[in-house]
Structures are given as structure tokens and as C-alpha cells.
Design a protein that fits this description.
Largest sheet of chain A: 5 strands, mixed
Radius of gyration of chain B: 24 Å
Structural class of chain B: mainly alpha
Number of helices of chain B: 18
Strand content of chain B: under 5%
Order of helices and strands of chain B: HHHHHHHHHHHHHHHHHH
Number of helices of chain A: 5
Shape of chain A: elongated
Number of strands of chain B: 0
Oligomer: heterodimer
Helix content of chain B: 55-70%
Shape of chain B: globular
Radius of gyration of chain A: 26 Å
Distance between the termini of chain B: 35 Å
Number of strands of chain A: 10
Helix content of chain A: 40-55%
Structural class of chain A: alpha+beta
Order of helices and strands of chain A: HHHEEEEEEEEEEHH
């Protein structure tokens, strides 16, 4: 064995040992660890507080699922290999084993109840609505676009066939232009934005992949939820509920700006809006924005 | 509550009277459950292949970003019809109209279904409904394009004008009635036409599962049919049941649809669990491990399945999340029981891997993964992140391909000698299995990742530069491999038809009553029946010295009586083959 091979094999062995240790730790404390150092299994870590909470639940659930899959899959593989027909001997014709049967009823029951506990905890975090959000935006979906109503009569409407950049922020900021399709919903980072969502025609889906969040926009039903972006950036988003012919093109995106930049943007938009609407409304809109 | 069935006529010459018309007239007028079952199977397989071709067209479209292979209207119509055909016209009818119709009366030792004419009516309604739905492709504007769920208000006349949606609604309504009638027939046959000695706890698990499925049909399909009638009224009679304009509620449609839709998932799954549960013991040369546990697990799944419908509606923001989440998660428990019972059946058996057994193994892995991702989706926060993405698409395809394709074809290969009295070609069956398995995993694993990356379902195109193309191409290649695997299935049928190999009455050394009949069974099925003293009457008849050991005490391992004792052949196991 060459030194190099020896080194490789020892590396493999230590990696294997490290991986085994990692799996044990991960299985024991998926939630406590907060998901910071764990793999995300292709999911997003979540660019909002709510999305991050979901990500932690996802990672823990995924680890538990991999554990179950390894156990059950391993038993199946073992049965296939070990009990392949080797002779004409008649197998024992046993049919029941109460102890084993009770074990495999109780164990999954306990596992799903634990998952249910974490689920309820997380969904309460994700669905919690702050009584004092920093910003309230009314989002209306329609065939096939989005309308955002900010305080101060600022309304942004965009459809996919129109200018994909109605707020003029993209330019250099939007590195892959494909992230900036559709109208941009501008929100501040580090603060809570309350979204009030409905639809003016059919059912649409408000889905921001990197926020790990979606909610139906429905006619006649108003959904209210909070988003608290933790990282500034531009987040690709898309309608997910089939809404007719151009469903595939019903893009939008979320622009998360630092609060001061956001306030500057909003007040400039409010000035434009109040200039258009006349001076009588400007007082009330400024109050609403603050 | 066994009712003594009339003993089948045993005089040879009597059969001449039963022959009746032949050829087309026989096909049109027969009330024989075997012929009706075969009609169902052939029709539903035609639907399966049509829907499969639609899937290949869609995968071709998605192999490149912003593809113009199909336009949006065509693509939307294709996924609508793919889903509708697969779910309404293949997966259900293949199981409860085809396999159950043929096999269930044989398994309980009955001469036919309880209501043979109603059975024939079921088939003709189903065929009529199928054709009605397919006619949508021929009308102006193309077939319905609102998804197989037809959510209002998209499916109302304002957003989906034209006659194709009406044809679709009629088609679903007709097949709904057909399913209800079949359900009535299956329940009555199981309760009233069992042979003497066939107590409820001696029923084969396939029959048990069909009984529970039929009860679920009676719970769920009337809701669907009613929802369709109301949708039709909204479209044509000026009602506003599902539209906000007149004070109606679009959410009502979703509640009604999924109150059907989730039991429907188990209507599509339980029969196939039954097939797997019948096949694995036969090819393990053992009785089913945990028979009663299996029966109660099936009942548990059915009971829970009527209380989980709103887990399809987590993102509506209008349902009580913890309730539906908890009930959905609890379904994992009886499903887990089934898994461990299947494994326990194989444990210490003598496994042979004929084609039906291979398909069952394929089912186990597909359903394991599909089931685990289902548990994830039962958790609302995870559903928020993945709802209506390709993650969900991959999940339900793993479940539904696992059940209706893997287990469905396991059943078809398993009973093929019974249907036709001849054997399929083993090597072609195995090639079918391996190609299907490669194609299956290559198609659907990338879709999980695409979904986690945020690719929505039901999109006809996706932007370039998102990095989605590679995985979509992989998925498309997998889909074509699945398509090729079915060529081996069809050629297999053709070859065994042209060059028959006689199979015999009981080629698998199987357990249940249908294997006591001739292959194919004579008119009214049985000329004689074996004594029925357990759930394996045919096995008992052929292996009188290898009876089932009913209960094993966990504490007797040391004496060699426990299942975990190392002796492959027990004191009362015998070594006769």
C-alpha cells in the first residue's frame, strides 16, 4: 500500500467516523442546534425570520426521515438478500409476534407525536401576526399580475408582459436578471411587514421560495401574514396556484432594503403619489407611513 | 354473518347452458364478473397509456426552458387530462373495477358479483364517462385546462368558457356513479356471497382492502358527484355556489373536492396494498405476518383518511392547521404497521423473485420514500415552503406510481396466469421491472430538488438561467425510460398471446381461493371448493402438514418456537414442498 493510499484510507475512515458522529449528534439535537451547521438538504435556510424557523423544522424532519428510511429500507434490503430462496426447506409458518407488533405501533406513534409538537411550535412562529408591524402592504393578485398598495396611496401594479422593473431598483442591483421578473414588492429588512393578501379573480399563490413561504390569494378571503426579512436582497417569486393560461409567467419578486433606504424609497413614491392626487391627502398618508 | 352461498353447479353439461352468445354480442351483454373485470382492465390500461403519452409530451416541453414545443393552452390541457385520466380513469377503475371485479368473487368463493347487471351498468357508465372526458380534445378550444382538481372559480364559465369543461364535468360525474355502483357491489358481495367457512377473518387481505375501499367509495364519491353537479349548475343555471359574486364561496369547492380527494387517495392506494399483501406471502412461502394487525391498519387508514382533507388546503389560511396536521401525521402509524408486516412476512421466508414479487419490492421502496415525504408535507410549515411545487409533484408520483403502477402491475403479472391460463415471459417481465425502476427514480428524484429550489408545478415553461434545466432534462430522460419499459409489457402480452405457454391452475403455489379454480375460471367460477379453515385454504389443501402457527410466545425463543429462533424449519413446520 502506497503512503498516499494509506493516507486516503485513513482520511476516509476518519471522515466516516466524523460523519457517524455527525449523524448521531444531528439525530439527537436537530432543533436545539438551530440548523446552523447542518446541511439544508436542498432547501433554503430562509431569508426571513419565519422562513428560517421553517428551515430548522425542515432540517430536523429530514434527518428523522433519513433515519427511518435507512432503518426500514435496511430491513427490506436485508430480507431480500438474507432470505433469498436457498433450499427447498419449508420456512416456519409463523404469523404473529405480539411484542414486535406493539413495538412497531408505539414507536412510529411516538415519532409522529414529537414531529407534531415541533410542527405546532413552528407554525405558531410562522403564522404569528405582530400587533405593531412597521409596514402594512396590501397585495392583490389578478390574472396575471400583482398589485401592491403601500401607505400613502402608493400603488405598484405589474404584469409579466409589462416592464419587469416598475420601481426602478434593479439596474445593477439585480445581478441575474431572471430574479427580477414581474413587479417588485419592496420591504424593509429587520422589520416586520404585514401583508394583506387577496385576489380579484381566481385563486393565485403568493410564493417566495427563499422565504420558505406560500399562501393562497383568494377572492372573498383575506389572508394576513407577517414577513420579517433578515437579509437584504432581491428574491425571485412566482404564482404557484394554477390560475389560467399565463400562470407560467406570473412572476414577481421581493426587494428587501435596509430600513433607511426603504424609507427613502417610500417617501419618494409618496411624493409622486400625493402630487398626482393633490395636497389634501398628503397629511394622512405621511401619518400612515410613519 | 356468513350467509351460505349457493353451491356452484357441478354437472358438466350444465355449463353448456351458461355459454350464451359469443363474440361481440357476448362482450356487449355479458354480466360475468370476469368479462366485465377484463373490460375494465383493458379500458383502464388504454387510459393509462394515453395519460403516459401525455406525460411524455409534457416532459419533452420541460426539457428546455421557455420551450415552444407546446403552447400554454396545450400544456395546461395536457396536465389536466393526464391527471384526470390517471386518477379518475386508470388508478381507481383498474383496481376496483378491473382487478377487484375479477378477483374478489373468486377469493370469497362466489359464483359472481352480488348484482351482475349493476356491475355491467358500472362498466358502461365508466366507458361512457371516459369517452365523454376524452371528447374534450375534439371541441373548439381544446380539452379542459384547469388541473385535475378543477378549482373554482377557475373552472367557472367566466374563466373556463367552452364545452370541454362541461364534457370533463360530465365525464367525472359518470365515472363517479360507476364507482358508487361498483362499491355497492363489492360490499354486498363480500358480506353476503362468501363460501361456507370463509369467515371475515379468513378473507384474503386483497378482499379485505377492497371491502374497506368500497366503503370509502361510498363515503367519498357521492361528495365528488355532488360537487360536480353544483359546479355544472354554477356554469349553466346561474347559481353562485362557488363564486363570490353572488355570495358563494370558492373555498367550499376545495372543501368538497378534497373531502372526496383525500379518501380518493386511499381508494387508489388500499387495493394496491391488498395486492402487495397477497403477493409477498406467496413468494415468501409463508403466511402474512400480523394478519389482524393488517386488517385493523387498513380500517385505521380509512377512518383517518376521512378527516385529513384540509391538508391539501394548508396554504388557504382558512383551515385549522393542528387538527388536520395531527390526523395526517397519524396515518403514518397504520402505514408503518403495514410496512413492518410486509417485512415480517419476508423474514425467515424462502423468497423467490418472480416478476410479481419484484414489482412488490419496487413498490416497497417507492412507497417508503413517497410516504416519508408525505409525512413531511403533513407538517404545515414545510407545506408552506413546498406547496404547489415539484416537491409535491414528486411526492404524489412516488406514492401513486408506487401503488397503481408497481403494485398494480405486480397484481397483473401475478394473476395473469389466472386470467388467461397461460404464462407471460419471465425475462420480459423482469426487464419491464428494471427499466421501470431506473426510469422511476431518475424521473422523480430530480423533481424533489427542483421543488425545493422553488419550481412551481403546472408551469409550461421556466426561465433560462435559473439552473433548472439540467435536472429537468434528467427527469425527462427518466420519463422516456419508463415509457420504453412498457414496450416490454406490451410485447410480453403479444408474445404470450401468439405463443401460449400453459400456466396451470396454481403456478405460484398460492394461498387464496382463486388459485383453486381453473385458469381461466369456468363460468360461475368453481366446480368444487377446498375446506376453508384459515385465510390460506388452497395452501392448507396442498400443504396439510405446513399449517400456520397462529401465535408465537415471545418467551419461548430458547425452545425454538419463536420467530427469531434460528431454526429455519420448526417442529411443526415440516419440510414438504
Amino acid at each position: 500500500m502506497s503512503p498516499r493510499a494509506a493516507e486516503t484510507s485513513s482520511t476516509v475512515a476518519s471522515r466516516r467516523r466524523r460523519r457517524a458522529l455527525g449523524v448521531i449528534t444531528a439525530a439527537a439535537l436537530p432543533i436545539v442546534l438551530g440548523g446552523c451547521q447542518l446541511p439544508t438538504f436542498y432547501g433554503y435556510r430562509g431569508s426571513t425570520r419565519q422562513g428560517h424557523d421553517e428551515s430548522v423544522l425542515w432540517i430536523g424532519t429530514m434527518i428523522a426521515a433519513l433515519f427511518v428510511m435507512a432503518l426500514v429500507g435496511g430491513l427490506i434490503v436485508w430480507s431480500i438478500i438474507r432470505y433469498r430462496k436457498r433450499s427447498d426447506a419449508m420456512p416456519r409458518q409463523f404469523q404473529n409476534h405480539l411484542g414486535i407488533e406493539i413495538t412497531y405501533i408505539v414507536t412510529p406513534l411516538v415519532m409522529v407525536l414529537i414531529l407534531f409538537g415541533f410542527t405546532v411550535y413552528t407554525e405558531n412562529q410562522v403564522d404569528a401576526v405582530s400587533p405593531t408591524p412597521a409596514l402594512k402592504v396590501h397585495v392583490t393578485a389578478f390574472q396575471w399580475g400583482w398589485r401592491y398598495q403601500y401607505p400613502g396611496n402608493v400603488t405598484v401594479t405589474g404584469v409579466t408582459t409589462e416592464d419587469p422593473d416598475p420601481i426602478g431598483l434593479n439596474g445593477a442591483a439585480c445581478a441575474p436578471a431572471v430574479d427580477c421578473l414581474g413587479p417588485g414588492l419592496v420591504v424593509p429588512t429587520g422589520q416586520t411587514t404585514r401583508i394583506t393578501l387577496n385576489s380579484q379573480d381566481v385563486i393565485h399563490g403568493f410564493y417566495v421560495p427563499e422565504f420558505n413561504f406560500s399562501r393562497y390569494a383568494q377572492p372573498g378571503i383575506t389572508n394576513v401574514f407577517d414577513l420579517t426579512p433578515t437579509h437584504e436582497g432581491i428574491y425571485r417569486a412566482q404564482c404557484t396556484q394554477l390560475c389560467g393560461l399565463y400562470h407560467s409567467l406570473m412572476f414577481f419578486h421581493v426587494v428587501a432594503l435596509p430600513p433607511d433606504q426603504f424609507r427613502a424609497w417610500l417617501s419618494s413614491q409618496q411624493q409622486v403619489a400625493s402630487a398626482a392626487a393633490g395636497p389634501s391627502t398628503s397629511n394622512s398618508t405621511t401619518k400612515a407611513a410613519a | 354473518m356468513t350467509v351460505l352461498a349457493e353451491r356452484p353447479v357441478t354437472h358438466e353439461h350444465e355449463h353448456e347452458h351458461h355459454e350464451g352468445p359469443t363474440g361481440l354480442l357476448k362482450w356487449l351483454t355479458s354480466t360475468d364478473h370476469k368479462l366485465i373485470g377484463m373490460n375494465y382492465m383493458v379500458t383502464s390500461l388504454v387510459m393509462f397509456f394515453l395519460a403516459g403519452i401525455m406525460a411524455l409530451l409534457m416532459r419533452t416541453q420541460l426539457a428546455s426552458p421557455s420551450s415552444s414545443f407546446l403552447n400554454f393552452q396545450q400544456y395546461n390541457a395536457l396536465f389536466t387530462m393526464h391527471g384526470s385520466l390517471m386518477l379518475y380513469l386508470f388508478a381507481g377503475p383498474f383496481a376496483f373495477g378491473g382487478l377487484a371485479n375479477y378477483i374478489l368473487p373468486l377469493q370469497v368463493g362466489a359464483p359472481d358479483m352480488a348484482f351482475p347487471r349493476l356491475n355491467a351498468l358500472s362498466y358502461w357508465l365508466y366507458l361512457g364517462g371516459s369517452i365523454t372526458m376524452l371528447l374534450g380534445f375534439l371541441v373548439a378550444g381544446g380539452a379542459a385546462a384547469y388541473g385535475w382538481v378543477a378549482y373554482a372559480p377557475l373552472s367557472t364559465v367566466q374563466f373556463s368558457p367552452g364545452s370541454a369543461p362541461d364534457l370533463w364535468i360530465l365525464g367525472v360525474g359518470l365515472t363517479g356513479f360507476s364507482a358508487i355502483f361498483t362499491g355497492v357491489n363489492l360490499v354486498t358481495t363480500t358480506f353476503y356471497l362468501r363460501a361456507p367457512g370463509m369467515t371475515m377473518f379468513r378473507l384474503p387481505i386483497f378482499t379485505w382492502n377492497m371491502l374497506v375501499t368500497a366503503i370509502l367509495i361510498l363515503i367519498a364519491f357521492p361528495i365528488l358527484t355532488a360537487a360536480m353537479v353544483l359546479l355544472f349548475a354554477d356554469r349553466h343555471f346561474g347559481t353562485h355556489i362557488y363564486s363570490t359574486a353572488g355570495g358563494g364561496s370558492p373555498l367550499l369547492y376545495q372543501n368538497l373536492f378534497w373531502f372526496f380527494g383525500h379518501p380518493e387517495v386511499y381508494i387508489l392506494a388500499l387495493p394496491y396494498f391488498g395486492i402487495v399483501t397477497d403477493v409477498i406471502p406467496v413468494f415468501s412461502k409463508k403466511p402474512l405476518f400480523g394478519y389482524k394487525g393488517m386488517v385493523f391498519a387498513t380500517m385505521g387508514i380509512a377512518a383517518l383518511s376521512t378527516g385529513v382533507w384540509a391538508h391539501h388546503m394548508f396554504t388557504t389560511g382558512a383551515v385549522l392547521l393542528p387538527f388536520f396536521s395531527l390526523l395526517s401525521l397519524l396515518i403514518a402509524v397504520p402505514t408503518g404497521i403495514k410496512f413492518f408486516n410486509w417485512i415480517g412476512t419476508m423474514w425467515r421466508g424462502q423468497l423467490t423473485f418472480k416478476t410479481p414479487m419484484l414489482f412488490c419490492i419496487g413498490f416497497l421502496f417507492a412507497f417508503l420514500m413517497g410516504g416519508l415525504t408525505g409525512v413531511m408535507l403533513a407538517s404545515p410549515p414545510i407545506d408552506f415552503a413546498t406547496h404547489d411545487t415539484y416537491f409535491v409533484v414528486a411526492h404524489f408520483h412516488q406514492v401513486l406510481v408506487g401503488t397503481s403502477v408497481y403494485a398494480g402491475f405486480a397484481g397483473f403479472y401475478y394473476w395473469y396466469p389466472k386470467f388467461f391460463g397461460r404464462m407471460y415471459r419471465e425475462w420480459m417481465g423482469k426487464t419491464h421491472f428494471w427499466l421501470l425502476t431506473i426510469g422511476f427514480w431518475v424521473t422523480f428524484m430530480p423533481q424533489y430538488i427542483l421543488g425545493l429550489w422553488g419550481m412551481p408545478r403546472r408551469v409550461a415553461s421556466y426561465p433560462a438561467n435559473l439552473g433548472w434545466q439540467t435536472l429537468n432534462v434528467v427527469s425527462t430522460i427518466g420519463a422516456y425510460v419508463i415509457g420504453i419499459s412498457f414496450v416490454f409489457f406490451l410485447v410480453n402480452l403479444w408474445v404470450s398471446w401468439r405463443k401460449p405457454v400453459v400456466a396451470g391452475d396454481n403456478p405460484w403455489d398460492a394461498h387464496t381461493l382463486e388459485w383453486f379454480a381453473t385458469s381461466p375460471p369456468v363460468h360461475h367460477n368453481f366446480e368444487r371448493l377446498p375446506p376453508i379453515r384459515s385465510e390460506r385454504p388452497v395452501w392448507d389443501y396442498h400443504h396439510p402438514d405446513a399449517r400456520t402457527i397462529e401465535h408465537v410466545k415471545p418467551s419461548t425463543n430458547g425452545k425454538g418456537h419463536g420467530p427469531l429462533a434460528d431454526a429455519g424449519v420448526g417442529a411443526d413446520g415440516g419440510d414438504k414442498v
